[in-house]
Hints:
This protein has helices at residues 12-25, 42-48, 63-69, 110-113, 134-148, 163-168, and strands at 2-7, 28-32, 57-60, 73-77, 83-84, 97-101, 120-122.
Amino acid sequence: MINVVLYEPEIPANTGNIMRTCVATGTHLHLIKPLGFSLEDKYVKRCGVNYIDKCVYIIYENIDEFFEKNEGTFYFLTRYGQKPHTSFDYSNKDENIYFIFGKESTGIPLDILKPHFDKCMRIPMTSDVRALNVSNSVAIMVYEALRQQDFRDLLKYEPHKDRDIIIKNGD
């Protein structure tokens, strides 16, 4: 199972976008308090469109509670990472994989990262940008893991009622 973990998210629109990505990919979302907004926030709902009610998510009081209740491989997305995100193997469909993202303003605290430095990574980018938007980073990571898993049971075409007509007459 692929899991996305947001450590103290601050911006409701980012979380709404991430919730939509999680629904689209069958990914579970873990939110670690404090949240910088209410999940009832209109920005969360607008960005999540009509999908938020389909999102599987759990809220934790703090990072310790999250670690106590979850087992698997924890990967940390951070500007301090020394390895690119593509250097890890996410292909085991039976493994619980957790991609942990820090809050938008400051990232993940160093005291949390230090014991896991071998699982810290960075999405490569120019020196002109410190970090990508967290919702973009989540999408990059989730789809890299899904690519390595051959996209599991995700649809690879639109199941539209006219699909066969379009393909048949698609010259």
